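Predict structure. Chain length: 243.
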Amino acid sequence: MAIRAVVWDVDDTLFDYTSADREGMRAHLAAEGLLAGYASVEEALTRWREVTELQWARFAAGEADFETQRRDRTRVFLGRAMTDDEADAWFLRYVAHYESAWSLFPDVLPVLDALAASHRHAVLSNSSLHVQDRKLRLLGVHDRFEAILCAAELGVSKPEAGAFLAACDALALPPAQVAYVGDHPEIDGRGAAAAGLLSVWIDRGGTHAAVEPPEGPRRIASLAELPSVLRADTRFGAPSTFG
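Prediction complete.
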């Protein structure tokens, strides 16, 4: 069955989140005078990433809402009690630095252009609609997508099948006619495959080339490879790009 639509993850798939987060937090910590508390900038950034992943996992598990996980990231990272208003203010100062570093990956616009006439497009993210809608607008690609769905509003997160099926429902297409492209081999890759979509794991630059991909996803190193994967529809036994 031909693939008629592509559903996209946002952070670290379309948008270079990791670079923006690192550069934004580096600038924020310097402005807040907090770097002196760490042996190095890298130590501080590593700690921020650890706290972010822990609090995001709580949000994905339904243990905290989106705003609470942001506030708790701030409180845990700083190691002190803060009111909601204090935590919000600190986080918003970080966001200003973070947004100044926003950019799409260089392979994004070429592949969206290449697939514009042949496939429909939507977004499914484990973030919130408020965040991702604004981000896609500022990055200049919001109008490329028919639907933008986010876990905070859906009430279900990837890798749960319900999240992927909600995206298919928004496009009025069966999972077999939809591809999902994301950067996480389990949350995106295995989750989409288990839900019945053509799952494409973007492993930029072959960073994880030595890692055996989970069963189901097709691994690519660049979005430039995506059109050929969609044409071939390799779900039924053909080797992956790294096979």
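Summary: Strands lie at 5-8, 120-125, 147-150, 178-182, 198-202, 218-220.
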